[in-house]
Structure formats: C-alpha cells, structure tokens
C-alpha cells in the first residue's frame, strides 16, 4: 500500500502546522528521519554520550530514560555505554521495531506525559533528543513534572534550530540555544551547538534543578 504522504515529515509538521501522526509515519515509512544512519555519526549525539559517561563517573548516574526514542538507536548506544537505558515512544510500531533491532535497552510504548511510567522508571537522567518541537504544547507540563517529582534527575536536551526565515512552526517558543535555555530555566552544566552548512544548528545542553550539581560534575 502506498504511504499516505511520500514525505515522512508531512506526518509530523505540514505547512507550518503540527500534525503529530507518528504511528502513521512509522507504519508507512521504515526509517524516517534517517535514524539508522545519521544518528550513528551525529556530533551532538557523541557529545551527549560523553556527558552521560561523565555523569556516570562523577555523579553515579546509571538509570537513563530517552523520551521520543523512535527506532531506538540512541537508546541502544546509551545502554551499550554501560547504562540501564529505557526508550519511550508513543508509536507502538516504532517500539516494536526497536525491540527487534536492539536488545541492550528496554523499550516501552507510552506517551511522553505518561508520568506513571516515569515514576516507575525513576530516571537519573532524562534524554530529550530532537523531540521538543513535537511536544511544544506539552513541554511545560513535562518540565513541571520533572522539576516537582524528579528534581534530582539531570536532563540532556538535543534539538536542531533553523536560520531566520526557515522555521515556521514553534517560533513563539524558542529559535536558538539561548532561547531554549531560558525556556527550561535549569542550571546549565554544559551547552553548545554544531553548526551545519545549511545554516541549521544542532544544539545541546545538560541541565540540573540542583545548584550543587555543578560541583560534583566538573
């Protein structure tokens, strides 16, 4: 059967409007977002893994949860680095495929606001890799939950931002790394960005709600 949209991105954001049909996207497209190739070489993913290793060595972090894990490649990379890693995604098709592809990590089909799952998993670090654009209307609720119920949990946040005139969706929230940091209002332990030839920037930050975390991390 032909896919509903030839371009997988139209299942998520189309004509500047959020669609959010992730299950349809994964049913119709085997490897959207070039997940099995680009993530292997993404510079920002290498930075995130290094930050996790530092958290493990300096802060004793072991339990890591990635929300919006997709096909699970990055969750598997985290697990292969010695962490107890769990990937969560709203698409049951994506989770089923992740379980077939990778065995080092656990995978759960759940909504990003399934707080019972997060309470059960008790992550010491929450990874948000390229997901914030897709949960903008739910981001405040997730941040509030993390700050209130899991205040000792670190957050590693990765997100691509776009040059002026390119981005249509989400401009009212943030458009660059400084805007992302202001939005999350966390204590930033480290942040940075990778600049791409087309003007995009792949940003990252490691944040903590605890002011003392910096001393143990550095």
Overview of the structural elements:
The protein is of the alpha/beta class and 218 residues long. The chain has a single domain (35-217), classed as Vaccinia Virus protein VP39 (Rossmann fold). 37% of the residues lie in helices and 22% in strands. The chain has a seven-stranded mixed beta sheet. A two-stranded antiparallel ribbon has the order 1-2. The termini are far apart.
Largest sheet: spatial strand order: 5-4-3-6-7-9-8
Using the 3D structure, state the CATH architecture. Answer: 3-Layer(aba) Sandwich
Structural class, from helix and strand content?
A: alpha/beta
Might you state the CATH topology name?
Rossmann fold
Task: List strands and helices in order, with pairings.
Blueprint: E1 13-14, E2 17-18, H1 22-28, H2 35-41, H3 43-59, E3 63-67, H4 73-80, E4 84-89, H5 92-101, E5 106-109, H6 115-121, E6 125-129, H7 139-149, E7 154-161, H8 177-184, E8 187-195, E9 201-208, H9 213-217
Parallel strand pairs: 3-4, 3-6, 4-5, 6-7
Antiparallel strand pairs: 1-2, 7-9, 8-9
Task: Tell me briefly what this model is.
The chain is of the alpha/beta class and 218 residues long. Helices cover 37% and strands 22% of the residues. It is built from 9 helices and 9 strands.
């Amino acid at each position: 059967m032909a896919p509903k949209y030839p371009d997988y991105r139209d299942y998520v954001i189309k004509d500047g409007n959020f669609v959010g049909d992730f299950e349809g996207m994964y049913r119709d497209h085997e490897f959207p977002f070039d997940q099995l190739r680009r993530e292997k070489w993404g510079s920002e993913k290498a930075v995130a893994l290094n930050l996790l290793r530092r958290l493990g060595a300096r802060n004793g972090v072991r339990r890591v949860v990635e929300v919006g894990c997709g096909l699970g490649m990055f969750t598997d990379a985290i697990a292969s680095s010695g962490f107890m890693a769990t990937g969560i995604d709203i698409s049951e098709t994506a989770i089923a495929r992740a379980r077939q592809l990778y065995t080092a990590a656990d995978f759960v089909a759940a909504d990003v606001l399934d707080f019972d799952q997060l309470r059960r998993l008790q992550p010491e670090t929450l990874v948000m890799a390229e997901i914030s654009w897709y949960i903008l209307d739910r981001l405040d609720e997730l941040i509030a939950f993390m700050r209130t119920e899991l205040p000792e949990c670190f957050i590693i946040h990765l997100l691509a931002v776009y040059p002026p005139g390119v981005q249509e969706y989400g401009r009212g929230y943030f458009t660059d790394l400084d805007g992302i940091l202001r939005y999350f209002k966390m204590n930033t332990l480290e942040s940075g960005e990778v600049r791409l030839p087309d003007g995009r920037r792949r940003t990252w930050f490691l944040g903590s709600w605890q002011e003392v975390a910096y001393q143990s991390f550095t």
